[in-house]
Amino acid sequence: QVHLVESGGGSVQPGDSLKLSCAISGHTENSYGIGWFRQAPGKEREEIAIITWLGGSTWRLGSVKDRFRISKDNGKNTVYLQMNNLNPDDTAVYYCASKNISDGKYYEWGQGTQVTVSS
Fold first, then answer.
1. Which of 106, 34, 36, 43 has its CA nearest to residue 64?
2. pLDDT digits (tens, 9 = 90+) for 12-37
């Protein structure tokens, strides 16, 4: 089982940056990679980025691709989400989750970290 803990959220102004961290522990042998998701009030949860453990391949949602970057530190078992030029539409709870290597689904999730962007 994989245990995930997000950190780094907060309240910022439009145009600011934040770097979220996802600390991973436990048995990661069934983990294909780590995805970042967000859920804004009244909206469905959306996947915004993923990075694979093997090779470090990445994917980002088109609407954030120019502003967000996902990376990992294997030595620290941590995945990061660097978010630049934040705007109010980025306000949401951000989650990281482990993508199962067998079926590609996400079964293990962190508790989430709140990001609020307002002036």
1. 36
2. 999 999 999 999 999 888 889 999 99
Give which of 79, 82, 83, 78 is closest to 14, Cα–Cα: 83
Cα 85 versus chain centre, distance: 17
What is the rounded CA–CA span in Å between residue 50 and residue 48? 7
Expressed in angstroms, the distance from the first to the final Cα of the chain is 40
Angle in degrees, CA 110, 116, 119, rounded to 5: 170
> Each residue of 40-53: pLDDT tens digit?
999 999 999 999 98
Q: How wide is the angle at C-alpha 45 spanned by C-alphas 92 and 112, nearest 5°?
A: 50
